[in-house]
């Protein structure tokens, strides 16, 4: 068992997390480019402070990657830790109880954009290095860190970066803490992530917005036509209707469904936690399978006409929707995006001018739940929590995990310290401070367990 952190260490580590969280490193916002760079500087400062060597901020055509390493012995295994210091936009800012970039502690939780996704989580690994070096003046294995600044925009520059620095990044295993525990006292080892295909649909009707009384009944309405298209993308069984969508889907095996069935899962609890009247998983699957192991389609945004206070009798000229699909093996993001685009064009009536724009995507990732590398994570969890981790797939996407596997040949260990109720990508994002400290303990044990990889 590792030495537990002293109170003074805990408060110093919390201060460092606050410093990181106070920098608005919103990667998608060009106006924040400098702040993103400042955040990279702060990550590199904390890496150096922990005792990592060769710390450098490495440029990419987009936001920089922060690299650091600590090499003990060639004969020992090397783990490559991946995380991201960029965050999602903070809007709608008026729904935050305290400002998104003024980290605030309430009820044992730290509130700020990026707290659980992913600053709080990747920092656990850096602090674990600092704690181990202070206690033992060395590390049990070789470590390399790559903390990027473009995950939330689909990591457009990271695959070329991995190719370019293949030698430097040579390792035996990938470690990622950018996901959730199964329940507040139940860590999970994630063996699958969904992929993503994302599109924007723009419909144009008349050349300008029109008086709906003067022109309605003669001129077509893009808002209504867009809704008609969208309403045909899923059927009453919650199946995606895009032709060919399921063709390459590898169904869950009987064993996997049995293992899922043995997990402690109460759909009623999930239903209440999100505040809906009814859960709507795909027919034939339960909600846990639906949100982690099945492909799906969502409308992420809609825009048309008058949306302010009161009523305005307008016949809009344009309507826009953002639509995305979560994918599972062996669906291909580019192929699915094309199938979806073709189907939307087919559904679009002659009265509308239709533009479909394909946005970033990502491949799904799946590894056998009993892959030997995952055992190291189980060992660490047993030591700190005294219980067996749950093994499960996650519904979110970290598109670069597959590239680490394919470009660098690394098996992935995904061990998250967050929780799904921590409002990631939403107002009032937070991270349980207890799990920050426990995450540091688990990371220390994980490094130790990886010695026997
Ligand atoms: N950390 C999340 C993904 C995640 C969340 C994995 C919860 C497992 C559990 C990551 O930062 C993220 O938000 N990814 C994006 C994908 C990206 C291409 C924008 C996502 O899933 O929407
Ligand atoms: Mn993340
Ligand atoms: Mn995210």
Describe this structure in words.
- By secondary structure, the protein is of the alpha+beta class.
- The chain contains 13 helices and 18 strands.
- The chain has helices spanning 7-21, 33-50, 115-136, 158-164, 212-215, 222-231, 254-262, 267-274, 287-292, 333-347, 372-385, 400-408, 433-449, and strands at 53-58, 65-70, 78-84, 104-106, 109-111, 142-148, 173-176, 188-193, 195-204, 210-211, 296-304, 314-315, 318-327, 353-358, 365-366, 390-394, 412-415, 430-432.
- The strands form four sheets. Strands 1, 2, 3, 6, 7, 8, 15, 16 and 17 form a nine-stranded mixed beta sheet that branches. It has a four-stranded antiparallel beta sheet with strand order 11-13-9-14, with helices on one face. A three-stranded antiparallel beta sheet has the order 4-5-18.
- Strand 1 (53-58) and strand 2 (65-70) form a beta hairpin.
- Helix 2 (33-50) packs parallel to helix 3 (115-136) and helix 11 packs across helix 13.
- The protein binds ligand BES and manganese (II) ion (2 copies).
- The site of one manganese (II) ion has 5 residues, from helix 3.
Number of strands: 18
Residue runs with pLDDT of under 50 for 5 or more positions: none
- Give me the number of helical elements: 13
The whole-number mean of residue pLDDT values reads: 97
N- to C-terminal separation?
Answer: 19 Å
**Beta fraction:** 15-25%
Helix content: 25-40%
| Rg value | 23 Å
Question: Which oligomeric form is depicted?
Answer: single chain
The bound ligands are: ligand BES, manganese (II) ion
């Amino acid at each position: 068992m590792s030495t537990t952190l002293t109170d003074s260490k805990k408060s110093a580590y919390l201060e460092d997390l606050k410093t990181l969280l106070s920098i608005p490193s919103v990667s998608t916002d060009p106006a924040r480019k400098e702040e993103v760079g400042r955040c990279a500087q702060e990550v590199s400062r904390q890496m150096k402070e922990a005792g990592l060597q060769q710390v450098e901020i490495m440029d990419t055509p987009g936001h920089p990657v922060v690299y650091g390493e600590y090499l003990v012995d060639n004969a020992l295994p090397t783990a490559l830790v991946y995380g991201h210091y960029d965050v999602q936009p903070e809007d709608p800012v008026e729904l935050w109880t305290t400002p998104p970039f003024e980290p605030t502690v309430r009820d044992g939780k730290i509130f700020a954009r990026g707290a659980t996704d992913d600053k709080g989580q990747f920092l656990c690994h850096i602090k674990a290095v600092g704690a181990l070096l202070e206690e033992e003046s060395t590390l049990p294995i070789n470590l390399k860190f790559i903390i990027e600044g473009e995950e939330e925009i689909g990591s457009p520059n990271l695959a070329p970066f991995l190719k370019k620095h293949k030698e430097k990044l040579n390792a035996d295993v990938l470690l990622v803490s950018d996901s959730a525990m199964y329940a507040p006292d139940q860590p999970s080892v994630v063996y699958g992530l969904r992929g993503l295909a994302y599109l924007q649909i723009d419909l144009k009707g008349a050349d300008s917005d029109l008086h709906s009384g003067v022109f309605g009944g003669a001129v077509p309405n893009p808002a209504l036509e867009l809704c008609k298209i969208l309403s045909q993308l899923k059927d009453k069984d919650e199946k995606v209707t895009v032709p060919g969508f399921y063709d390459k889907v590898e169904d869950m095996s009987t064993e996997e469904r049995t293992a899922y069935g043995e997990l402690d899962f109460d759909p009623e609890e999930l239903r209440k936690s999100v505040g809906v009247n009814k859960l709507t998983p795909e027919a034939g699957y339960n909600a846990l399978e639906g949100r982690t192991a099945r492909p799906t389609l969502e409308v992420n945004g809609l825009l048309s006409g008058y949306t302010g206070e009161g009523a305005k009798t307008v016949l809009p000229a344009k309507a826009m929707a953002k639509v995305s699909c979560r994918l599972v093996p062996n669906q291909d993001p580019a192929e699915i995006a094309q199938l979806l685009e073709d189907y939307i064009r087919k559904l679009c009536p002659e009265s509308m001018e239709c533009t479909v724009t394909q946005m970033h995507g990502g491949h799904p990732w799946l590894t056998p739940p009993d892959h030997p590398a995952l055992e190291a994570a189980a060992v660490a969890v047993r030591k700190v929590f005294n219980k067996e981790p749950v093994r499960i797939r996650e519904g979110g996407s970290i598109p670069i995990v597959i590239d680490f596997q394919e470009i660098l040949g690394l098996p992935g260990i995904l061990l998250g310290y967050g929780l799904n109720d921590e409002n990631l990508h939403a107002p009032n994002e937070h991270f349980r401070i207890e799990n920050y400290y426990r995450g540091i303990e688990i990371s220390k044990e994980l490094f130790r367990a990886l010695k026997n990889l």
